Amino acid sequence: MTVTKATYPPIEDRYISLLWAEIEAAEELATLHAQIFDPAWDENAFRDLLAEPETSALVAKVRLRELGPPVPVGFAIGRIAADEAEVLTIGVSEPFQQRGIGAKLAGGLLRAIGSAGAKRLFLEVAEDNVAAISLYSGLGFTEVGRRQGYYKRRDGSAVDALTLALDLASRS
Ligand SMILES: CC(C)(COP(=O)(O)OP(=O)(O)OC[C@H]1O[C@@H](n2cnc3c(N)ncnc32)[C@H](O)[C@@H]1OP(=O)(O)O)[C@@H](O)C(=O)NCCC(=O)NCCS
Q: Which CATH class is domain 8-171?
């Protein structure tokens, strides 16, 4: 069955949990990543990433009914280097988008990275990614750079990457 947004009613906060993702979550994250991104990162890539002490990874899980099992629906992964950090990837599977889960994940990652000592957080986003840019600007990210034609699309077109930054020091 194809699951569409219309299949689910709005999700109450009590059904959503954010959990730290450790190396054991590599397979789960690779499966989820493949539902959201093309090209996808494989399990080994997640294993390597999650093994690094500089990596912070959160997974969002949703219970679809009161006593149902939590289902992984999104993730946010960042990496810290000295007092700077970057968001490596953030995604929510399509049927669960636009329900506040991306904002919860991004907020959780920001807090984790900020409390680990990072002062500035960077990320890159395709300039036509309306959903992600809306999420990031709502969090206070501002554009600090642009890479022309950075993302190559399967149809042969190229899209600029915007580099966005957020000053974490001024948030505390
Ligand atoms: C970007 C992404 C993570 C957002 O997750 P989400 O759970 O849908 O986001 P939320 O519901 O928390 O919404 C966060 C904000 O973005 C806005 N937004 C989300 N999707 C949007 C869309 N398609 N169009 C316009 N705004 C959108 C929301 O309205 C909200 O803004 P608000 O706080 O002003 O109301 C999700 O769209 C996604 O996984 N996209 C595919 C992967 C991707 O592009 N990742 C980012 C790579 S840089």
A: alpha beta
